[in-house]
């Protein structure tokens, strides 16, 4: 629902030029066209460190008091048909001097919770070092094991910093045993760095040198069906925020068998958005994954291109740049669809999140986008029309700061049949205060 949430009393407001963002703004659902939107629930962990499930009118239908980094839903088929199970973070500890909101050093344990909040599986004490240290992703596999993206603090030969915050992937059995693991620092020469860039990587003062921020299973796809073994369904896809590349790991060998970035042609935000075209430089990207079978665009790579600042050497922020969502043919490495603010007849900076964020394809061809640093989720059609929008009202500390924010790391679509039968939902149209802007240049 539409709620006005003042940050300061109106009598104390400064002129509009005093703030980059409004000091009074709406929260909840600000627009909703039930005929054009894909109707569903959305799950996310708010800045209040709770996990929220909302319906299309922004009504909160379920809350878990734990946060997820991010919250992850479990397919009922993997847990005997049980609906409404989630993977979340269960406990924290002092992360030490290297801990931050962007790593998992303070995360003691992760676990599976049922709809009523009961912990039915937990992993932490059995983890290497006695703590899960999970960050950015965890996923239940079809074999019953759980993939955990985690951190490992240790010395790596050749690095300037005495210890790096390395990225490690664990495959954990229901009994808590690590059945498979992969360590990023053992594959440095597979990530596409030039010799000069590799020197910069090893000389960085930031121990979180790669900052891998998502992990997904490639899943069934047309490329593998056609004989391309790089896209084997069991292979794993991840992206490095700090180094501007996306890669696929061969599950059997641990080797990188496919990669996009880090060195791509410079982005020209004023160039015509002619499609398809070769991928240009994404920066600080998030939520890269292969669109699953059964959804429009299946087999394409979908990624939120933040256009923040990252890379070796660092790519500078653009003066009037914004973020993009890119759908990429992973074989030809061409952009086949994209969304930017211009797609909704807005200036580029009107859609921008320099960090966090996500994008997911929906069954009707729409895309659910989380503009994370502003806590705004919205659905756009293939032509760029905004047909649903929600602004999170849940406030908490901003990452690395005592400032207050409504930031949201990732927002995920949840089908109606994922929840227990009888769970309420609402689908009442919400008319935006001003006429919706018409799309201009998004295409697929």
Average pLDDT for all residues: 92
Determine the number of helices (DSSP H or I, runs of at least 4 residues).
2
CATH arch. level architecture = 6 Propeller
Principal-axis shape equals: globular
Low-confidence stretches: 1-19, 435-441
Strand residue percentage: 25-35%
Going by helix content, strand content and strand pairing, the class is: mainly beta
CATH superfamily heading: TolB, C-terminal domain
CATH topology: Neuraminidase
Q: Kindly, what is the distance between the CA atoms of the first and last residues, rounded to a whole number of angstroms? A: 32 Å
Q: If strands are numbered along the chain, what order do they take across the biggest sheet?
A: 1-2-26-25-24-23
């Amino acid at each position: 629902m539409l709620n006005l949430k003042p940050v300061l009393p109106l009598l104390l407001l400064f002129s509009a030029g005093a703030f980059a963002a409004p000091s009074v703004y709406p929260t909840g659902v600000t627009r909703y066209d039930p005929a054009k939107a894909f109707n569903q629930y959305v799950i996310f962990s708010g800045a209040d460190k709770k996990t929220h499930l909302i319906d299309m009118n922004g009504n909160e239908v379920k809350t878990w008091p734990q946060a997820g980094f991010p919250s992850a839903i479990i397919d009922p088929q993997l847990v005997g048909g049980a609906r409404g199970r989630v993977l979340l973070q269960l406990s924290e500890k002092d992360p030490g001097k290297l801990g931050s909101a962007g790593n998992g050093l303070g995360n003691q344990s992760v676990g599976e919770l049922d709809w009523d909040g009961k912990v039915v599986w937990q992993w932490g004490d059995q983890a290497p070092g006695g703590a899960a240290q999970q960050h950015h992703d965890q996923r239940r596999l079809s074999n019953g094991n759980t993939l955990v993206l985690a951190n490992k603090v240790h010395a790596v030969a050749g690095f300037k910093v005495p210890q790096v915050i390395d990225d490690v992937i664990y495959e954990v059995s229901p009994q808590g045993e690590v059945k498979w693991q992969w360590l990023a620092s053992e594959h440095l020469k597979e990530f596409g760095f030039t010799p000069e860039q590799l020197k910069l990587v090893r000389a960085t003062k930031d121990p979180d040198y790669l900052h891998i921020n998502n992990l997904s299973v490639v899943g069934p796809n047309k490329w593998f069906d056609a004989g391309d073994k790089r896209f084997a369904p069991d292979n794993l896809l991840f992206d490095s925020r700090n180094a501007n590349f996306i890669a696929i790991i061969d599950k059997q060998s641990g080797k990188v068998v496919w990669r996009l970035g880090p060195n791509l042609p410079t982005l020209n935000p004023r160039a015509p958005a002619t499609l398809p075209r070769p991928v240009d430089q994404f920066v600080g990207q998030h939520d890269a994954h292969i669109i699953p079978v059964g959804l429009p665009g299946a087999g394409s790579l979908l990624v939120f291109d933040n256009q923040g600042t990252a890379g070796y050497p660092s790519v500078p922020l653009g003066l009037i740049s914004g973020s993009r969502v890119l759908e990429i043919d992973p074989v030809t490495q061409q952009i086949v669809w994209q969304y930017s603010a211009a797609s909704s007849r807005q200036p580029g900076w009107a859609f921008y999140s320099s960090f966090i964020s996500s994008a997911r394809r929906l069954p009707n061809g729409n895309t659910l986008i989380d503009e994370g640093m502003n806590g705004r989720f919205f659905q756009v059609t293939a032509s760029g029309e905004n047909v649903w929008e929600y602004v999170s009202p849940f406030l908490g500390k901003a990452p690395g700061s005592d400032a207050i924010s409504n930031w949201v790391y990732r927002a995920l679509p949840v089908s109606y049949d994922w929840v227990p039968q009888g769970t309420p939902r609402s689908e009442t149209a919400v008319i935006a205060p001003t006429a919706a802007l018409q799309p201009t240049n998004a295409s697929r």
